[in-house]
Amino acid sequence: MRRTPVVISWSGGKDSAQLVEQLRQDPAYDVVGLLTVVTEAYDRVSIHGVRREILRAQVAELDLPLHEVMISPAASNATYEDALERALVDLRTATPGLRAIAFGDLFLEDVRAYRERVLAGLDWEPVFPLWGRGDHVRREDRFEYCDIRLRGQTDNPTAVG
Length: 161
Description:
By secondary structure, the chain is an alpha/beta fold.
């Protein structure tokens, strides 16, 4: 069976981590890299505000190549889509046959529709393996994710929530 190469849209959040784990275990897919959008002036992942130093640590643990799309804080949707298109062209050039991008979206219909519309125009196939599975992470795991992110940054146990 030929595995479909897929790049992961990486936000730095727990759903992205779950997505990587699930697709790595799926014999239908070959995870070939991560794609993330960074707001240049803030030096953070645009979706969740994850600092780039944390992003780099995450990527090192995952041992996957990272492709960054840089945007300005005031970037319009058109600017974002142009930057995304350039990154996807570069990815496809580097990995012939790559045309699938996976998202960790769970339930936001408007976000999914937007991704599908944009990617259809670029001849990319969006993949949503976690769609509708909001319970895919056990409550205990959620606390561990929070603890990992806050460790060393606070001695206040109430900061975790």
